[in-house]
Amino acid sequence: MSTAKGSWSYSANVPPDTSIAAALTAFQHYADLAYTMGTTVQHSNDLVNYADGNVLSLLNDFITRERSLSFALQGTEALKVMSATLDANTKVVTITTCTDDTKLGSVVTSGPKKGQTAPASDKSAYLNIYKVHLSGDGKWRVTNAAPEPTEHSSERW
Description:
alpha+beta; 6 strands
């Protein structure tokens, strides 16, 4: 499955397992919403369908903070799913992604510096690990997001 929408793209190989496929679809919607929210600096009422717990709070808090600082994300981001595995006992799919947002930065949205690019740190593509769980209402939702804990993780892709 591949999607390209403006400056955002997503790719994943979907296995025949229906649970993993459903979790990947929910993750794809979450990632798309996260990018859209960051570039528009707008909250989405749809986010609760694809994220909950700490991930939901952190993304909403990020948008609130960016808006208060007059920043918005601008540029391209590409996510590639490297692996997706199901723990059938806990109904959790662990998804490892490679995220390339080396051309995604912050731009000032108001005031005398409107349109200027905010200072950026050195960036490189990186691996993240997401947990997507089957909620009690039957929907798959992202519940955890963390960087892969190895120092040289970029060497794997």
